[in-house]
Every structure is written in structure tokens, then in C-alpha cells.
């Protein structure tokens, strides 16, 4: 290959990547870095009007946040979603995948699409639907519970049931995605391995525990990491279903950031929230990787 | 034999339960105003009517939001493909200095959620005069690292000898991209287009932040605003939800194989 050819190829390489790299630099990397800088300033509505009002205040935003009980409440709610939501979504999606993957199941493709469908629906629209499903008097959920003798629950109006109700919706909306990932992993597990265990007299649970689960362990980890990131980024669900209420019991960290930034125009403080959120995701993901390494999943 | 049917029956039951909210949404949208607010909650309209849809289009201008969503999602898809596809190809097949380092940096950057930079991005677009415009709503879709990753992944399987042969015949890099690479990438391009279209259609937080003018609202933003004013109008809101969900649901059902295959190709990156 001649030198001109090599030069032409290199030039084409840069020309084809330049538009995307410029966009990523301008609209992704720059804002992410600026977020850190912004979090060290008191950027507020006055600075928005006139940049002369902007001051560097070091770690003051962070200091104010850690002494703000409303911030801790939002952190607590988000951690609640991570703590309960991640196992719930992982177990639900794995169970769905095992069902779809069962050898004797007919019309597999149809069930796969049906269980996946909620994931592609518009979140805001289905959140509105669930609002009515969870209605105290006319909702289908309370009606169904009434049939087995449970008294009507004011799901979204009560601080102690609003989070679980939203989590139920989140799990319904997102388990299909993870189910597809699990299905691919399950299909890669050799059938003869399971058959051998069956011949040796292992029951269904033992086969799952000792044959299937070790084989798909890296996928469980992948799904858990993806779900953690998802749970940390809940925003539209409380925004549409409860507007953070009742009594701020469903305000998530991202919702708190949205309020700081675009309701009160405390952009400096909002950026600090964003950065704390990022650190949380990073730390939890690293812990997961470490645990996975210890138990030999990867 | 009986076990076989029992399992399939169980799967059908689970599927029905999962689809219940969607079925119910469609059913209630055809009920007369106030019909769903009775006990026990009716599952099917006693006298199906299109009144809710008529009200939505005539009194609440949902047609406008439908068009806005169509425009924003179509443009997002088109522009994202235009930015992402040549880059994905170049990272896979063209040799230039710094290529691998840049690509590794991009992959590492994928762990950073987009929300981190939302506030500065808002200020940046404000300075550029793009707040409260379609352009502002489109901007994040131009910076899609995942798309570059997906295209690169698939381009790697195109034999390099094929490209070399075209080069020796004197074809320019642009011509090679159009005549050889794009046809070979067709399945993944459909997948990627579908991802971006659905993603931008369903997106809520960013359009909520960047679009202030009601005339510019996309469907999810308009629906969220409408649902705050019409908490009691169950049937009307269900019709609004149907209008919002139906286009993407149909698109998914028609192209589901492309969607699910692409999802797997993207998720095995770890």
C-alpha cells in the first residue's frame, strides 16, 4: 500500500469521526466536566441574569447538601429503590427468562414479545395508566385485592406505600429488558449438562442452583449493574405519579437535582447533586464487581 | 402432555397479567367520560365511543404534540445515524493514529450517565440560543456513543479484503462507505434507527427541561402536563396514553426481531 493511500485513509478516518467526536465533546464531555466546576460555584438565578454575580465557593454546596435533611431523604429513597428494586427486578426477569426458556413451552416467541412489550412503551404514558390502576376506589389493583379480602389501600397517597407502588411499576416496566439478556445467557448453557444432572437425580432447584446459576453468573452481575444504574436514575416515575409526594416520600436524587436546578435555579447546588449521584453509581458498581470476584462469578 | 399444556397455560396467564395495564388502557380509552369511575371497575366499554379521542384532538390539540414528537424523533434518528455510522465504520476499519486510544476513551465514557451534565448543557445551549427549540431537544442524540459502538461491532465482521480490493480499484473512502459498507450494515442500521426513534419518542426529562413553549411540547411532556390538570378524567387520559404509546408499540411489533437482536448485540459488550 502506497504512502498516499495510507494518508488518504487516515484523513478519511478523521473526517468520518470528526462530526461525532465534536458532538460528543461539545454536548457530553464538556457538560460533564463543567458539572464538576459548576458544583464549586454559587451559580443561581442572579448568575443566570448576570455572570458577574458568580463566585467560587469551594465545597460549600456539598457542605450544605450533607446538612440538608431533604437531600438525605432523597438519598434514602433512592437507596431504598436500589436495595429492594435491584433484587426484585433481577429475580423477576430471571424467573421470566427461565419460564420462556423452558423446554416444553409452546409459542415461545409470542410470550417473549408479550413480556417485553412494557419496556418499549412510553414511560410517561404507562405511568399515567398505573396511576389509575393504583386508584384507591376504582383501581383494578385494589379491586383484585378486594376479591381476596384485602381492604382498599391508598397506594400513592400514603408515604409508606407510595415507594413500593412506584417500584411495582418500575419492575413491570423494566424486567422485560433484563429477561432478554438472561434468555441469551440461558440459551448458551449446554442442555446436556442439565440432562446429565437430571440423570444423576438432581431435582429442578438443584439443577438451577448448581448447573444453570454458575453458568450464567456473569450475566447476573451484568444485569445487576445495569439495574443499579437504572434505579439511581429514576425521575419521570415520581414526577408523573406522585410529584415527589406525599410528604416528599418519593423524591429521588435525580428529582431533587431537577428541583434544585430548574425549579429553584440553584444550578451550582444541582450540579453538586449530579456529581454525588455519579459517585454513588460508581461506588456501588465497584462494590458489585468486588463481591462478584470474591464469589467467583467473574 | 398435560405438563406441557400446564406450562404454556401458565405462561399465557403471566403474559395476560403483564399486558393487563396496556389492554385496560385501550379499553378505558373507548369508554364514555366517567364510566371507568364506577365500582366494580368495568373491564370493557358498555358502549364504545371515540369521544375521548375527538376531545383530545379538537379541544386539547394533541395533534400538534403528535406532530412535534414525529418531527423530533425522525430528525433525531436521521441526524444520529448521519453522525454515528461513519464514525463507527472508521473506528472499525480505517487506520489512523490515535484511533484505538480515542475509541477506548469513548467506551470508558459510556459509564457516565448523561444526567450528570444536564445543568451545564442547559447553560451551554442557552448561550447558543438553542433553549426552547427543537434543535435543543435533538442535541443529546448527536452524541450517541452507544451507536458508534454498535456500528463498529458489526463493521468488524465485514472482510477487510473487500474494502482493500475496492481501494485498489480506485474507489474513494466515501464511495466504499456508501456502496459496500452501508448495504452490509443494513440490519444493524434498522436496529439502531429503531433504538433512537423509540428512545427519543419516549424521552421525558430532557425535553421537559429544554422545551418551555407549550407549542413545542413532545407527547410525553404534553401528557404529563395534561395529567396534572385532568386527574379525574380517567377515560380522556387513557386515550392520551394510547395516542402516545401506539406509534412506538406498533413500530416495535413490526420490527421486533431487529430490536431484540440488536439489544443482545449491545448488551454483551461487558
Describe this protein's structure.
The complex is a heterodimer of chains A (298) and B (270). Chain A contains 13 helices and no strands. Chain A is globular and about 75 Å long. Chain A has helices at 3-38, 45-49, 60-66, 69-101, 108-120, 123-133, 140-147, 159-187, 191-199, 204-232, 236-241, 253-263, 267-294. Helix content of chain A is 76%, strand content 0%. Chain A has 298 residues and is mostly helical. Chain B is 73% helix and 0% strand. Chain B has one domain: MetI-like (MetI-like fold, Orthogonal Bundle). The longest helix of chain B has 32 residues, at 62-93. By secondary structure, chain B is mainly α. Chain B contains 14 helices and no strands. At the A-B interface, helix 1, helix 4, helix 5, helix 6 and helix 8 of A face helix 1, helix 3, helix 4, helix 5 and helix 6 of B.
Amino acid at each position: 500500500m502506497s504512502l498516499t493511500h495510507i494518508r488518504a485513509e487516515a484523513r478519511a478516518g478523521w473526517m468520518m469521526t470528526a462530526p461525532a467526536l465534536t458532538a460528543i465533546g461539545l454536548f457530553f464531555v464538556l457538560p460533564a466536566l463543567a458539572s464538576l466546576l459548576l458544583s464549586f460555584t454559587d451559580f443561581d438565578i442572579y448568575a443566570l441574569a448576570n455572570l458577574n454575580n458568580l463566585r467560587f465557593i469551594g465545597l460549600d454546596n456539598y457542605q450544605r447538601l450533607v446538612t440538608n435533611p431533604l437531600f438525605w431523604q432523597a438519598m434514602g429513597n433512592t437507596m431504598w429503590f436500589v436495595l429492594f428494586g435491584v433484587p426484585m427486578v433481577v429475580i423477576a426477569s430471571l424467573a421470566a427468562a427461565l419460564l420462556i426458556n423452558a423446554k416444553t413451552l409452546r409459542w415461545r416467541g409470542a410470550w417473549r414479545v408479550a413480556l417485553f412489550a412494557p419496556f418499549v412503551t412510553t414511560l410517561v404514558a404507562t405511568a399515567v395508566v398505573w396511576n389509575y390502576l393504583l386508584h384507591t376506589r376504582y383501581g383494578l389493583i385494589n379491586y383484585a385485592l378486594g376479591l381476596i379480602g384485602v381492604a382498599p389501600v391508598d397506594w400513592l397517597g400514603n408515604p409508606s406505600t407510595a415507594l413500593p407502588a412506584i417500584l411495582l411499576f418500575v419492575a413491570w416496566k423494566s424486567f422485560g429488558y433484563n429477561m432478554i439478556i438472561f434468555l441469551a445467557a440461558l440459551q448458551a448453557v449446554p442442555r446436556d449438562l442439565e440432562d446429565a444432572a437430571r440423570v444423576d437425580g438432581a431435582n429442578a432447584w438443584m439443577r438451577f442452583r448448581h448447573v444453570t446459576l454458575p453458568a450464567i453468573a456473569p450475566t447476573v452481575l451484568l444485569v445487576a449493574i445495569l439495574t443499579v444504574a437504572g434505579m439511581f436514575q429514576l425521575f419521570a416515575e415520581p414526577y408523573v405519579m406522585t410529584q415527589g409526594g406525599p410528604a416528599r416520600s418519593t423524591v429521588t436524587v435525580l428529582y431533587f437535582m431537577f428541583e434544585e436546578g430548574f425549579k429553584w435555579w440553584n444550578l451550582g447546588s444541582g450540579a453538586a447533586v449530579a456529581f454525588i449521584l455519579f459517585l454513588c453509581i460508581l461506588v456501588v458498581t465497584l462494590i458489585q464487581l468486588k463481591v462478584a470476584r470474591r464469589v467467583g462469578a467473574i | 402432555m398435560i405438563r406441557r399444556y400446564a406450562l404454556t397455560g401458565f405462561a399465557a396467564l403471566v403474559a395476560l397479567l403483564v399486558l393487563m395495564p396496556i389492554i385496560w388502557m385501550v379499553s378505558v380509552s373507548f369508554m364514555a367520560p366517567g364510566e371507568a369511575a364506577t365500582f366494580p371497575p368495568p373491564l370493557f366499554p358498555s358502549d364504545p365511543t371515540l369521544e375521548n379521542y375527538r376531545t383530545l384532538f379538537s379541544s386539547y390539540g394533541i395533534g400538534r404534540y403528535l406532530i412535534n414528537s414525529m418531527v423530533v424523533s425522525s430528525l433525531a434518528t436521521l441526524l444520529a445515524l448521519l453522525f454515528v455510522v461513519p464514525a463507527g465504520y472508521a473506528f472499525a476499519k480505517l487506520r489512523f493514529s490515535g484511533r484505538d486510544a480515542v475509541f477506548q476513551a469513548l467506551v470508558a465514557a459510556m459509564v457516565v450517565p448523561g444526567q450528570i451534565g444536564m445543568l451545564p448543557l442547559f447553560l451551554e445551549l442557552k448561550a447558543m440560543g438553542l433553549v426552547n427549540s427543537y434543535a435543543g431537544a435533538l442535541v443529546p442524540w448527536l452524541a450517541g456513543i452507544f451507536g458508534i459502538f454498535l456500528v463498529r461491532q458489526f463493521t468488524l465482521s465485514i472482510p477487510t479484503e473487500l474494502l482493500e480490493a475496492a481501494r485498489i480499484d480506485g474507489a474513494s473512502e466515501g464511495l466504499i462507505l456508501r456502496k459496500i459498507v452501508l448495504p452490509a450494515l443494513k440490519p444493524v442500521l434498522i436496529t439502531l434507527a429503531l433504538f433512537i426513534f423509540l428512545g427519543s419518542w419516549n424521552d421525558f426529562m430532557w425535553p421537559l427541561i429544554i422545551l418551555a413553549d407549550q407549542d413545542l411540547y413532545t407527547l410525553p411532556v404534553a401528557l404529563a402536563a395534561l395529567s396534572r390538570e385532568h386527574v379525574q378524567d380517567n377515560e380522556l387520559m387513557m386515550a392520551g396514553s394510547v395516542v402516545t404509546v401506539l406509534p412506538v408499540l406498533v413500530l416495535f411489533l413490526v420490527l421486533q426481531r431487529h430490536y431484540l437482536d440488536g439489544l443482545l448485540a449491545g448488551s454483551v459488550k461487558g
